[in-house]
């Protein structure tokens, strides 16, 4: 019975030790806002690095999240208002919206960069692309893909100068030539035809 009491004491001690470890882990998670931070991100920024601290403070700031959500909403509205036109025609609204897209791209790139510096990219627990929550991880992957594709898309070429356009003297290329729209005609009767019929 004495040996059994010693065995119960080790089980109780293990339970108490387990509870103590769980409390310590919970305190760590609460201190980091529920997101465990790796010791280094991008093999460069330590926990005490002032730039990483600033990035972490900005990313975990509730207002930052609200600003990003409002920017996403504004981007959706801008995409809905954009009016696609044939043959690269445009209007003033579309030109303004296209320049606004660059502002959105800068904001989303900055968000992506700040989160990667604060949490790491892939190799750490809780990293930007390896977060604990499945939905958050999926949105981060989508966010990174959209930002990367947007940054890599070709920038439109500036319009050609009038002197360069005047040098082309041959007939326009059929692929570039605009289609001529037919002018609608209304058939009408001549008065003399109408009078002779009567």
UniProtKB/TrEMBL annotation:
GO terms for molecular function: voltage-gated calcium channel activity. The chain crosses the membrane at residues 63-82, 102-123. Keywords: Calcium, Calcium channel, Calcium transport, Disulfide bond, Ion channel, Ion transport, Membrane, Repeat, Transmembrane, Transmembrane helix, Transport, Voltage-gated channel. It is found in: Membrane. InterPro entries: Ion_trans_dom (IPR005821), VDCC_alpha-1_subunit (IPR050599), Volt_channel_dom_sf (IPR027359). Residues 62-152 form the Ion transport domain. Its main location: membrane. It is a multi-pass membrane protein. Residues 161-198 are annotated as: Disordered. The keyword Membrane applies. It comes from the Eukaryota. GO terms for cellular component: monoatomic ion channel complex. SUPFAM superfamilies: Voltage-gated potassium channels. Gene3D superfamilies: Voltage-gated potassium channels. Chain C. This is Ion transport domain-containing protein. It comes from Oryzias latipes (Japanese rice fish).
């Amino acid at each position: 019975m004495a040996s059994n009491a010693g065995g119960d004491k080790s089980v109780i001690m293990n339970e108490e030790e387990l509870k103590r470890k769980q409390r310590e882990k919970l305190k760590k998670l609460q201190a980091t806002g529920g997101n465990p931070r790796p010791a280094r991100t991008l093999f460069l920024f330590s926990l005490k690095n002032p730039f990483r601290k600033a990035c972490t403070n900005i990313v975990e700031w509730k207002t930052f999240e609200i600003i990003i959500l409002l920017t996403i909403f504004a981007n959706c509205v801008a995409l809905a208002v954009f009016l696609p036109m044939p043959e690269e025609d445009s209007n003033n609204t579309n030109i303004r919206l296209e320049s606004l897209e660059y502002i959105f791209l800068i904001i989303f790139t900055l968000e992506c960069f700040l989160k990667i510096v604060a949490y790491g990219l892939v190799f750490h627990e809780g990293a930007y692309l390896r977060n604990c929550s499945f939905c958050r991880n999926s949105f981060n992957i989508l966010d990174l893909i959209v930002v990367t594709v947007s940054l890599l898309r070709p920038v439109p070429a500036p319009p050609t100068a009038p002197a360069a356009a005047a040098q082309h003297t041959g007939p326009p290329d059929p692929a570039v030539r605009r289609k001529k729209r037919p002018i609608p005609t209304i058939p009408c009767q001549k008065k003399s035809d109408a009078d002779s019929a009567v």
